[in-house]
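Project standup — Tuesday

K.O.: blocked on the structure for the chain from last sprint. Re-posting the sequence here as requested.
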Amino acid sequence: MNLSVNCAKYLLKIKAVKLNPAQPFTWASGLKSPIYCDNRKTLSYPQIRTFIKEGLAGMIKENYPEVEVIAGVATGAIAQGALVADMLGLPFVYVRSEEKKHGLTNLVEGVVAFNQKVVVVEDLISTGQSSLKAVDALKDMDCKVLGMVAIFTYNLPIAQRRFEEENLPLHTLTNYSVLVKEAAAEGYIKTDEIETLNHWSKDPTAWAEQFK
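H.V.: unblocked you, prediction finished:
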């Protein structure tokens, strides 16, 4: 059984992922979705926390062997990024969603030097906007961002397009299509709900029209 399938099974087991095509969730962005993923829950389970830490660290070592600094995106990936940095024996910084309103008004917290090679850790990728905002903040500090790793991606077309435009490699432990397949196989969703879930992932905006 591969890494992606195992990760999906873990997320489903601890109910980090909730699937409800009939009564969709509303994301902070306002986007309606039949799925909601809360990877913070993984931190409460030592076995799963270790699995994810080792998986992310392994992807970084394989794809970005020249990395010098690990950066976590606030708030969901601060703990994940720190765990990975510790395992790799590398410095760690984290990127705020916005500048502090007091003190030094930092956007990037921690120490990172000119032209250092950075890999960004995210907990999940939705539209990609906030994730790439963190990348831009690091680039503004003259860092060389090699790529990003994350636990999960919704595989939304808009995110894929944004990462391509940014020319930024992305590697994830698991993804939406694997998750839906495992959810159906293990009885978390009904077989006839798979079509709805697939329809949403192709065009979330069009899918949400039915709920207006």
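K.O.: great, moving the ticket to review. The longest strand covers residues 144-153. The chain has one domain: 3-193.
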